Amino acid sequence: MLRKPVSNLLLNTAHKSPLLSNSRYGSTKVAVVLSGCGVYDGTEIHEAAAVLSHLTRNNVTPCCFAPDTAQLHVINHLHGEEDKSHKRNVLNESARIARGNIQNLCKLIETQSNFSAVIFPGGFGAAKNLSDYAINGINFSIQPEVEQVMKDFHCAKKPIGLCCISPILAAKLICNVTITLGRNISNGWPHRTAIDDARKLGANVLETDVSEYIFDKKNLVFSTPAFMYDGLFHEIDDGIGAMIKFMLTFSTQKYQN
Description:
This protein is of the alpha/beta class. The protein is built from 10 helices and 11 strands. The protein has helices at 6-12, 45-57, 90-97, 105-110, 125-128, 133-136, 144-155, 167-173, 193-200, 233-247; strands spanning 29-33, 61-66, 75-76, 81-82, 102-104, 117-120, 160-163, 178-179, 204-205, 214-216, 221-224. The chain has a 7-stranded mixed β-sheet with strand order 5-2-1-6-7-11-10. A two-stranded antiparallel ribbon has the order 3-4. Strand 8, helix 9 and strand 9 (204-205) form a beta-alpha-beta unit. Helix 2 (45-57) crosses helix 10 (233-247) and helix 8 (167-173) runs parallel beside helix 9. Residues 1-15 and 17-22 have low confidence and may be disordered.
């Protein structure tokens, strides 16, 4: 069996993937905001992968962004314990998901006009790195660049897609927003307390199954439960895919009035 020389293999790892900048995809661009890499301290990887694959499946170019800031902490995902031996950076960790093709979130603020929509996958990073909801509950604050991005897209009447726990960000920022965080029942919904928190913040929270999504027509906010439900991988993928397919049918021009 012929094998590629090890030296060439090592060199190849230094090249950034063309995945997110390749002209094979359509001219429509959607921003995807990541919060690290790994469900317990960053982005839920399977949700991010579902978002990216459903965007490209619909001939849309996804462009990844993340804040250049320290993670709240590092969690050993095998044991579920905090690893205090080192620190990690949200942008650097998010680059693992984006295959190296990612930009500082401040660049999205500068180039918002180039994007048709923005999507936030879930994972505890949304509650630990994009905000401090995991620490301060309903008295939480949102990372300044994240807040600016959400406000800019909302003011521009562009769609905002939210997965898993990330709708809590909209509950904080957008008055009377309608979202879903799944179902408020014990069987299969371990993070259901977020529903009451979002309602305390003034959000209209509708209960849905994992395969469903909610569309707030007034605010152009789309949300789906994803891993708020202790579901199977394909169930989470189906819900995110349905949300994105419907989300992409709406242009900003439809809701200018």
